Amino acid sequence: MQTTIYLVRHGETEWNKKGKLQGWLDSPLTEEGKNAALALQKQLKNVMFDDVFASDLERAVETAMLVAPSMSVQQDARLREIFLGEWQGQRVEKLQQTLFYQTYTNEPHLFQPTNQESFAGVTKRMMQCLEDISVGGGNILVVSHGVAIMCLLAHIKGLPLAQLWDGGIIPGATVIRLQYNAGLLQEI
Q1: Alpha-carbon torsion 136, 76, 95, 28, what sign?
Q2: Given 10, 12, 62, 145, the catalytic residue
Q3: Residue 164: pLDDT band by 50, 70, 90 thresholds?
Q4: Do the domain assignments include residue 103?
C-alpha cells in the first residue's frame, strides 16, 4: 500500500530567532513561525490528509494544528529533535567556540556524543516511526524538527554522514514529500 508523507519542519520559534539550541526543550512559535505554518496550510489546502502526526514537543504540535486545523494531531516522541544534552538552551554563538561543538557542526562523521544523542540514534527512531505510521497508506502530515529531518533524508538518500549539513538546515514550515511503498521510503 502506498503512503505519501508530507514531512514538515516546525515553524520558527523564539529560540530559533535568538540563536539558542532547543533539542528536547521548547520555546513558542514566533508570529513569523505561525504565519509560515498558515501559509503552508494554504499551499496544502487541496491535500486530504488521512492522519496527522507530530513530535510531542509543543512547537511541532502547534505547527501541525495550524497546517491541518480540522484534524486531530497524534503525538509521537520518536519524531522529536535530536537530544542535545548540556547544549540545550545555550546560544550557538557561545558553543561555536568549543572544539566539541565544531566537530558536531563541521565534521558530523567524527562526532562522538557524550550526553547528546547520536545521529544514528535519531535516524533509527525517525525511520521506525515513519515505517510504523505508513502501513495504512494514504496522505499523512508529519511535523518534526530540523536535525531529525536532515538525518532521515541523508539516510534515505544514501548520503554519508560527512555530508549531513551540506544542504543547510531546512527552513521552518517547509514541506518535503516522501513516498513509502513496499517497505521503501524515498523523496519524491
Answers
A1: positive
A2: 10
A3: very high
A4: no
